[in-house]
Amino acid sequence: MTQVANAETAGTRGPGAWTIFRRNRLSTLGFAILVLLLVLSVVGPWLSTYSPTDTTAGNPLESPNLAHLMGTDELGRDLLSRVLVGIRVSLIVGVIAAAVATLLGITVGSVAGFFTGRVDDVLMRVTEIFQVIPRFFLAVVLVAFFGANLINIILAISLLSWPELARIVRAEFLSLRSRQFVDAARVAGASTLFLIFVEILPNALMPVVVNATLQVGQAMLLEAGLSYLGLGDPSQISLGLMLHQAQQIMRTAWWSTLFPGLFLALAVLAINLVGDGLNDVFSPRSRER
What pLDDT is attached to residue 154? Predict the structure, then answer.
């Protein structure tokens, strides 16, 4: 049913997605920055001259120079090498946490919006409980209780990030479940799973994609906050962990906090700008221009 509707409207959609996205210059800039950071996170550590854990890379607390473009930390480790690895770890945490949170939000929201009644009431009350509790405080408690390793941090962030998306998906399902194409599929004998995952969910994914993009940046900031408080995984070099380790020397070695903080801010800003561009792409008004 949905495939037929899509085929009928394909010729009248107006400008393509990339054309609409490029209209927003800030989103295009954010996309370019994000691509650059992704490339650096993948190939940067392989091209770096020094190992991120090498304490003999230079003298302790060297200011930025030609040998160490971002300087060194208190142990003599090259900050550029550590930042390149930190970008990758922070992005991995953000993407995986956002993906898990999106999956949870879609599952809860679709079930609540499709079945309504008591099922909806119970799931929404659970969702509200998670929304009422301060997210960062609960993340601190979970990580401190279960242990500060990368898996626990990702799971904690995921478990605290799905309620907003669940409510968005639920609203979309409540709007779509009574549409004619859903009624036609129901009359034709479609199963409940077919109605949810084939008929309704594909038509509810537009706000989900935008929200999932923004969740990546939020997850990165939450991980950085946990690491800054000493609840990050000490075996993984993330930008938040670098900021935590530089607390005691930040007044005498400004570069130790400037560069990790700058790259973290750039990554989150770029992701948010891309999210704004995707919002324009999915906006019906943009299709009419």
Answer: 93
